[in-house]
């Protein structure tokens, strides 16, 4: 079992729709959860981080965390073509200095 | 604030050579983590430095090494390059890199160094 798994892609949604990206993790001691966006040929860019169970909203983005189910998700509302990118879920253990464990990424395409 | 910078941006080397990559963190950040990104393996953690000390290391051979200077700038070195070392090498900085419940733990990535080994 991979440490961090993301829903298989690619994911294609029409402009204006909600895109739902999912991630599960195996280490129950994980404390911090991050979503990064990576455009082709670029480096990962932080979208959101979440530490506590529940929802965290930032503009069109909502991160959801359920530690009991070891599940974290990212919702993108009113998806735009500029949201087309690879989305990376990253998890940090409670005692793991400076180490993020990444999922394989989900490719999102938003078509006009 | 200026972001994380990495030099050089592109490198072409041949098998057996060695290479040194440099990373300057965001001003005030003391933790620098290094990652390797390949199409097959994705993003994998190499090591992390804080206050000039390596605190964590990923599952890479000893050919991969690093160091951090007193100004928090970091370098990583790969010796005896192999074809499989071709990758995008990313560094990320954070303020502390240790606290599990603080945004001081959040990592910000540099643009990366694209290494091609021929």
What features would you describe in this structure?
- The complex is a heterodimer of chains A (112) and B (118).
- With 112 residues, chain A is mainly β.
- Chain A is 0% helix and 56% strand.
- Chain A is built from no helices and eleven strands.
- The radius of gyration of chain A is 13 Å and the shape is globular.
- In chain B, a hairpin with a 2-residue loop joins β5 and β6 (53-57).
- Helices cover 0% and strands 51% of the residues of chain B.
- Chain B is mainly beta and 118 residues long.
- In chain B, strands 2, 4, 5, 6, 9, 10 and 11 form a seven-stranded mixed β-sheet that branches. Chain B has a four-stranded antiparallel β-sheet with strand order 1-3-8-7, with no helix packed on it.
- Chain B has strands at 5-7, 10-13, 19-24, 31-38, 42-50, 53-57, 64-68, 74-78, 87-94, 108-109, 113-117.
- At the A-B interface, β4, β5, β9 and β10 of A face β4, β5, β9 and β10 of B.
């Amino acid at each position: 079992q991979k440490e961090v798994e993301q829903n298989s892609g690619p994911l294609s949604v029409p402009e204006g729709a909600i895109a739902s990206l999912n991630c599960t993790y195996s280490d129950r001691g994980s404390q911090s959860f991050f979503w990064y966006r990576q455009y082709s040929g670029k480096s990962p860019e932080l979208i959101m981080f979440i530490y506590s169970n529940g929802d965290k909203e930032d503009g069109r983005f909502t991160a959801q965390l359920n530690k009991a189910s070891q599940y974290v998700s990212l919702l993108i509302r009113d998806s735009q073509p500029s949201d087309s990118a690879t989305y990376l879920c990253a998890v940090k253990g409670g005692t793991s200095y400076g180490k993020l464990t990444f999922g394989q990424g989900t490719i999102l395409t938003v078509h006009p | 604030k200026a972001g994380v910078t990495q030099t050089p941006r592109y490198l072409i080397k041949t098998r057996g050579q060695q290479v040194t990559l440099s990373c300057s963190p965001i001003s005030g950040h003391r933790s620098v983590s290094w990652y390797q990104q390949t199409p097959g393996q994705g993003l994998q953690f190499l090591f992390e430095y804080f206050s000039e000390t390596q605190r964590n290391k990923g599952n890479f051979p000893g050919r991969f090494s690093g160091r951090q200077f007193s100004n928090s700038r970091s370098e990583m070195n790969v010796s005896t390059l192999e074809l499989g070392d071709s990758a995008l090498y990313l560094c990320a900085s954070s303020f502390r890199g240790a606290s599990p419940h603080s945004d001081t733990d959040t990592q910000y990535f540099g643009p990366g160094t694209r290494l091609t080994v021929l």
